[in-house]
Amino acid sequence: MLSDIQSRTGPVAPQDVLHRIASGTFGDPFAVLGPHAVADIRHVTALIPGAETVEALADPGGAHLLSPVPGCAGLFTGPVPGEGAYRLRAAAKGTVWETDDPYRFGPVLGALDEHLIGRGDHHRLWEALGAHAMTHEGVAGTHFAVWAPNARRVSVVGPFNQWDGRRHVMRRRGVSGVWEIFLPGIGENASYKYEILGPDGALQPLKADPVGFGSEHPPANASVVHDLRGYGWSDDAWMQDRAGRNARSAPISIYEVHLASWKRRAGGREISYVEAAEELVDYVAAMGFTHIELMPISEYPFDGSWGYQPVGLYAPTVRHGPPHEFRDLVDAAHRKGLGVILDWVAAHFPVDAHGLGRFDGTALYEYADPREGFHQDWNTLIYNFGRTEVANFLTANALYWLEEYHIDGLRADAVASMLYRDYSRKDGEWVPNKNGGRENYEAIALLQQMNTLAYGTHPGTLTAAEESTAYPGVTRPVDQGGLGFGYKWNMGWMHDTLGYMAEDPVHRRHHHNKMTFGLTYAFSENFILPISHDEVVYGKGSMLTKMPGDRAVQFANLRAFYGFMWAQPGKKLLFMGQDFAQEAEWAYAGSLDWAALERPDHAGMQRLVRDLNTLYRGTPALHALDFSPEGFQWIEADDADRSVYAWLRRGGPQDPNAVVVCNFSPVEQPAYRLGLPAPGRWREALNTDAGIYGGQGRGNMGGVTAEARPCHGQAASARLCLPPLSTVILVHEPGA
């Protein structure tokens, strides 16, 4: 059926329009190109630059020679009677080729898509925008759609049209600002970009697809067509059970990974998704972690950003393989009982010319005012969180990973920079909110919406915030005024405890409260205790080299700290390499020092982390009440002179209690009387000084028996051997 606009325009348009069609500067090509009714006879107008002759091959009806339009090279027109499909046959310099005419196809997007995109609540935005291989009106090809509301003209370009923006100018879909076109014959693995004329007619740098599902290998940066349909997931059992695995009462121990530098191959090749599906998954499972957290996987141009400056927010980086192989990694993790968390970067994006910056010739995705829209620290652009289409782009992206890749959780990066308009800015360098304050109301609303949608549409998933300030209610539900995250990284705990551990043990008595202060606010949020990549880079050294003393003392300190960390209230996160005490700080361009495991001290540390995970997962007292004051009680918090800390952890009514004692001094306490909540047998479940971990084997072999002698405010007590620089964990054995 021919449209009214086609009927009105016909194959003969004003000369200036024809010249603009031929030059690729006319923004409404469907009004001229393709089939049009003139006096009840179909005419076809085609633009094929470089062609000498063009025929329309109609079925039925045969070949119809189209006439060249004078003064408009590459433009041909003529009658093609009938209403059926036709193809175009062109010839030039003895070469003949056939193609379907993209301008004979109707729109793919419907009115509902336009309405939802315009309103900013298309929760499956990736199904409307981007490049989708499909069969449309009986012909195989790819549908392209992109949001560029201020553009004068948008074209799809790629090797299939010699990167010529005249050939495939797109159709504008009303006030939605979306442009679309169906290109027959284009399919999987085709590279493409968008060529855009800005509102002033200026040609913009070629742009990658904001909703593209894949990319070329860096440094090339074109988007790549990938068909996401039809993957055969085998993780039904995991998906049914994962709500319990992500629950606040569950043991959650996260292994943070930068995939490019986890384990490189000969010649420095990065590990593939398929290789990681076997090696990384097997390693993390064997180490007893519950989740893998991947540093940003969304496509990024600069290796040195570690993925935190993404350009292709909907594209798993091609550095490790195509999208379906990333699904293989997630599927393999689920089959091993591991959750997968992705770092999600909604705070900012890089200024690379092919990216989102001034996408349609205007400040579209970013705030226009650099006081709002430019990150001085990172040389990046800040999303315009208050623009409905931009907020939709981000919230839909979160849902995309949960839906299309079965991701179990999202950790939002740099949340503090989103919440505050004056983040890392001096007076006069930022724009106050409508009330004159520093809070970014638009970013707050975006995060609340993301969390509401994530938990509402994908129950059982989790979200976590990297938020370094004391912003209230990060993990409070949205309907109670909070941001709605499930968890928050406890950056204060990390800073304080690492500061304490860096002190020479003889001076620690002067800094005793650094290890206790975190418990004054431990239950104000649902905290994850993070030892992340940020703590072992940029000259900060590795976890091992942060510790004072000679090599043996460094190892003892680190073992004691890990015991302290795993026994504190809060979920756990440890960056790769710190599980075996890699000596060098992390280097993104290299590989972890796996050869270190040939040395007993490193192998002992790895075994300790594995055993800590095993004890943590198998002892409800160490995880079930992480976010409730009922799950924690100090036994000894004030023994600064001996640098000793002791506390009680409780689980459910039927779960055995655990008691944790840390001696952060270099002096052994061979008969330290410690109050215990109940008499009877207390098993030494873990001792970081054990010989199997590289320690001296001092401690309480077989456990201790508590007598009904009150101490430390407890009903019973026992004498313990506290090795120097150690953590000892005791578990009550009722009835023993």
UniProtKB/TrEMBL annotation:
Monomer. Pathway: Glycan biosynthesis; glycogen biosynthesis. It comes from the Bacteria. The gene is glgB. SMART domains: Aamy. It is an enzyme of class 2 (transferase). The keyword NADP does not apply. This is 1,4-alpha-glucan branching enzyme GlgB. Keywords: Carbohydrate metabolism, Glycogen biosynthesis, Glycogen metabolism, Glycosyltransferase, Transferase. Its EC number is 2.4.1.18. The lineage of its organism: Bacteria, Pseudomonadati, Pseudomonadota, Alphaproteobacteria, Rhodobacterales. The active site is at 413 (nucleophile), 466 (proton donor). Pfam families: Alpha-amylase_C, CBM_48, GlgB_N. It catalyses: Transfers a segment of a (1->4)-alpha-D-glucan chain to a primary hydroxy group in a similar glucan chain.
